[in-house]
Amino acid sequence: MSSDIEAPVPQGRYVAAVLAGDTVRTAGMTPRVDGVLTVTGRVGAEVTVAQAHAAASLGARNALAAVRSVVPAGHRFRPAEMVVYVAATADFTALSAVADGASEMIATELGPDHLPARSAIGVYTLPGGAPVEVALTAVLVTDLNS
Fold this sequence. Notes:
By secondary structure, the chain is of the alpha+beta class. Helix content is 26%, strand content 28%. The chain has helices at 49-70, 95-110; strands at 17-20, 23-26, 32-33, 36-37, 76-87, 117-123, 132-141. The strands form 2 sheets. A 5-stranded mixed sheet has the order 1-2-7-5-6, covered by helices on one side. Strands 3-4 form a two-stranded antiparallel sheet. A hairpin with a 2-residue loop joins β3 and β4 (36-37). α1 (49-70) packs across α2.
């Protein structure tokens, strides 16, 4: 489970996540394991939808780990917003199918009632040649039903 995964080490001069008041914002999380990208390329060219879907899931897993790394002990959080950037060819339009990988991961980890609002945005390129990058905003809550 993601709760056993450590927050990814930043690949530059930034932090993985910041807690400001009751809001946690993560950096963009690419599909890395131990600092190494698991897949590179643009969706619709070198990367299939299935590969990008799995990469989005891994990016979301890393984002959840980053959130958990800054949430104080004894506190709970709820994802509020997720942005999934997809490096794709100009004619690729199945952005939601790719971003669903991130949403499914969140639903598996936290339950389907705790999905965040989501945007899927197509871009030409991402850091390191990653096909996806996931940024997550979460809020601290006293009751996960709120």
